[in-house]
Amino acid sequence: AKEALRHGISIKEDNIMPSFKKAFVTVKSEHPNYGSRQGMNTRTWWANVVKRTFIDAGVSEQDLTKVFHKLSDNLYDRFRTAEGYELYSETEEILSELAAHGIKLGVVSNSDERVHEVLSSLGLGSLLNFILVSSEFGMEKPAKQIFDKALELGEASCQETIHVGDDIENDYFGSKNAGLRSLLLRRLTTEPAPPSSVQVISSLREIRNCL
Fold this sequence. Notes:
Blueprint: H1 2-6, H2 13-30, H3 32-35, H4 42-56, H5 61-78, H6 91-100, E1 106-109, H7 114-121, E2 130-133, H8 134-137, H9 144-154, E3 162-165, H10 168-177, E4 181-185, E5 200-201
Parallel strand pairs: 1-2, 3-4, 4-5
Helix pairs in contact: 2-4, 4-5
């Protein structure tokens, strides 16, 4: 909403998130995995999301057209740096601790190539042995192939690897079905309780007890 206001478009903040979620699902359905198999670049993919978001939130197409390309580009570039994100308090501490103990660390993300820049901007790049992004790899979690590739990049076996993620299907069951040990990160108690068989942690600090 703030970025839109800079471009002369007034919109209620409360309208943005529901419209964004709807637009994201629609574009993802039309162009899976950021359009990687359709020859679409990720800037164009996200431009489609931005357009659908603002129109669904009540902005007229006429008003949006006047500023659309600059607005879309600014939003895309904002979320390629630390400006668009905030780390949880324990993240750098725990990753630094694990890396200092010689534990290999990697990121497997259903996202686009900006993840490399984002993690570097957040000061985490030097702690990671690899970053595996679905738009570059060509497949998304929960596909077994992306977890197999992560094991290859980390030069590790599934028996000695723990995958931590906050999505029960893509992260927990995806990695578990690939043979890895899985931890579901649930920071909010308001989320639906997972099955009792699912191993849950509420903070990255709890990883210490799982090694």
